[in-house]
Specification:
Elements (H helix, E strand, L loop, with lengths): L4 E3 L5 H14 L3 E3 L20 E8 L2 E2 L3 H17 L3 E12 L22 E6 L7 E4 L5 E5 L6 E5 L4 E2 L9 E10 L9
Length: 193
């Protein structure tokens, strides 16, 4: 079973800097009070701190809805296909998320959630900037499988129905990612890389 695949240098340094500049200056951020539906997580886990975040929708139900689609999303997806051989067959959603410090510690994380509960979908977190605030991926028993530290130009891919979460930065001023949900022609190419 495919759990996750971390991809270093998905975007070359010059491209990654251009993406950061475009996202940070071109996104119109919407304030959201919670990273997930507040009724859907384990209130008994003392490490969970539900945080506010800022979101910029790039691709939604009606297709592209931001200039960032052509300027940022397409180059990332072209690079993904070039580096891994993954052929994207459909996009479900693409959005930029921005988190700021919220008083959490390295043990804290936002509520684990799934992006879409369909087996054929994959999620990718692309890191817009260098930051702290790891992405955590869990198994079916909610045991952490992997923790991935944001590094500009890197990405991590995992099944969209796998529980995962973000963490707020502690040392950095912002943690910015682009979250993709898509289907691919053949996921087995990831095991060949």
């Amino acid at each position: 079973m495919f759990n996750y695949c971390a991809i270093d240098n998905l975007a070359a340094p010059k491209m990654a800097l251009g993406i950061e500049n475009r996202v940070m200056t071109g996104a119109h951020w919407e304030y959201i009070e919670s990273t997930v539906d507040t009724s859907s997580f384990d209130k008994g886990d003392s490490n969970i701190i539900n945080s506010q975040q800022f979101v910029h929708l790039i691709y939604g139900d009606n297709g592209p809805c931001s200039m960032l689609y052509g300027e940022v999303v397409n180059p990332i997806l072209w690079s993904l296909q070039d580096k891994t051989g993954l052929e994207i067959t459909s996009l479900q959603r693409v959005k930029a998320n921005l988190l700021t410090p919220n008083g959490s510690t390295v043990d804290n994380y936002n509520p684990p959630h799934i992006d879409i509960n369909k087996q054929e979908y994959l999620s990718m977190v692309y890191y817009v900037n260098d930051s702290d605030g790891d992405t955590r991926i869990f198994d079916d028993n909610m045991t952490m499988l992997h923790s991935n530290t944001p590094a500009q130009g890197n990405a991590i891919i995992f099944p969209s129905n796998r529980f995962h979460c973000s963490s707020n930065p502690i040392q950095s001023n912002v943690r910015c990612i682009i979250n993709f949900v898509f289907t691919v022609k053949d996921i087995s190419v990831l095991s060949k890389n």
